Amino acid sequence: MPSNQHIVERALERIDAGYVFPEKTAAVEAAMWCGYFFRDDQVHLKDIYDRRTDTTRQFWTAGHLPAPRYADRPVYVLTSGTTFSASEGIAYTLQAHGRAVVVGETTRGGAHPTERHAITEHILVTVPTARTVNPLTGANWEGVGVVPDVPVPAERALAEAIGAAARRVEMPPR
């Protein structure tokens, strides 16, 4: 007979937002990941405004995904102080849409796409070239990080998420 913890773990979806996406494909991969947690295939996830070209690229959930959607399960995103960039974007997006509870530590705060420029053979400068904007909040996590709904040390985040799921904690209103 499965344990209560095993049953709870199977009933929820948890995302460890510590994964680092490849830089060139991060925005697209993060949007695809988010798509699995919405019923609708037309959810506006974010915009990225590119200062150099004065253009805005919109990111929406995909109509077709190669695996089933998890729209009916509670979602808990686990974060730490080292969670960064596209991984933060997943946490921020799902939190802003009321689709996930973020559990753990405030993240590092890297929302703006950047480019690296060599100053010398040994010095690189990283410069923001674009701005990420969430369509619901009109903001992002740059410089402030994603603030968890349930703040706990990262090493306790999984246990806390499992406990919250067992208690069937409601997602906080946005």
Draw up the topology in text.
Blueprint (H helix, E strand, L loop, with lengths): L3 H8 L1 E4 L9 H10 L8 E7 L4 E6 L14 E5 L6 H11 L4 E4 L9 E5 L5 E5 L1 E4 L16 E2 L2 H14 L7
Parallel strand pairs: 1-4, 4-5, 5-9
Antiparallel strand pairs: 2-3, 2-8, 6-7
Please describe what this structure looks like.
Pfam families: Peptidase_S41. It comes from Streptomyces inusitatus. GO terms for molecular function: serine-type peptidase activity. This is Tail specific protease domain-containing protein. Residues 2-153 form the Tail specific protease domain. The chain has 174 residues and is an alpha/beta fold. The protein has a single domain (4-167), classed as 2-enoyl-CoA Hydratase, Chain A, domain 1 (Alpha-Beta Complex). The chain is 25% helix and 24% strand. It is built from four helices and nine strands. A four-stranded parallel β-sheet has the order 1-4-5-9, sandwiched between helices. A hairpin with a 4-residue loop joins β2 (44-50) and β3. α2 packs parallel to α3 (86-96).
Our estimate of the beta-strand percent is 15-25%
Spans of at least 5 consecutive residues with low confidence: 1-9
Mean pLDDT: 85
Rg (C-alpha, Å): 17 Å
Shape: globular
Characterize the biggest β-sheet: 4 strands, parallel
Q: What number of structural domains do the residues give? A: 1
Q: What is the share of helical residues?
A: 10-25%
Indicate the CATH class. Answer: Alpha Beta
Name of the CATH homologous superfamily: 2-enoyl-CoA Hydratase, Chain A, domain 1
Q: For the record, give the distance between the C-alpha atoms at the N and C termini, rounded to a whole number.
A: 38 Å
- Looking at the structure, the CATH topology is 2-enoyl-CoA Hydratase, Chain A, domain 1
CATH architecture: Alpha-Beta Complex
